[in-house]
Design brief:
Blueprint: E1 12-17, H1 21-31, E2 38-43, H2 46-53, E3 67-71, H3 79-88, E4 97-101, H4 106-114, E5 119-122, H5 127-144
Parallel strand pairs: 1-2, 1-3, 3-4, 4-5
Helix pairs in contact: 1-5, 2-3
């Protein structure tokens, strides 16, 4: 019996909720050579994230992401509010949410897990370390873990 990683869908939709364009570019670069085919969608604030996930204008017909990479410090609606909305929604709650934040404050980590984040990752400031963190997310969430089928 094969105990290796299970097969993933042909392409994985990933929603990146990040207002820092440099961090978005680093994430795109780190995922460029991912083993699993994926499509990256990016929104720059919390309100846009909620609209995208609920397929509200201007995101009518947006694909449902299989994974969300969520910054905490966002304009309009912060990441903790977005996380709470995702995990309180029957339609969205099964989507894994990885919180990416510059904050290592224990209170922020605790709050994210109370809101049912799937994991909390502190963003390194060093380029190569940040790239390695994103590649680690790719390896675990896209190659090892089995993601739910999201309608």
């Amino acid at each position: 019996m094969n105990a290796g990683p299970r097969a993933q869908p042909p392409s994985v939709n990933i929603l990146v909720v990040e207002d820092n364009r440099a961090d978005v570019r680093l994430t795109e670069t780190a995922l460029r050579h991912a083993q699993v085919p994926h499509r990256l969608y990016v929104v720059g604030d919390g309100d846009a994230a909620v609209s995208f996930l609920h397929r509200r204008p201007p995101f009518d017909g947006a694909p449902r992401p299989a994974l969300v990479l969520l910054d905490v410090n966002l304009p309009r609606k912060d990441g903790m509010e977005v996380l709470a909305e995702i995990k309180d929604s029957r339609a969205l709650s099964s989507i894994p949410v990885i919180v990416l934040s510059t904050s290592a404050r224990p209170a922020d980590v605790q709050r994210a897990y109370e809101l049912r984040a799937n994991c909390y990752v502190v963003k390194p400031v060093d380029f190569s370390e940040f790239t390695e963190v994103v590649r680690s997310i790719d390896r675990f969430w896209l190659q090892v873990a089995r993601l739910p089928d999201i309608p």
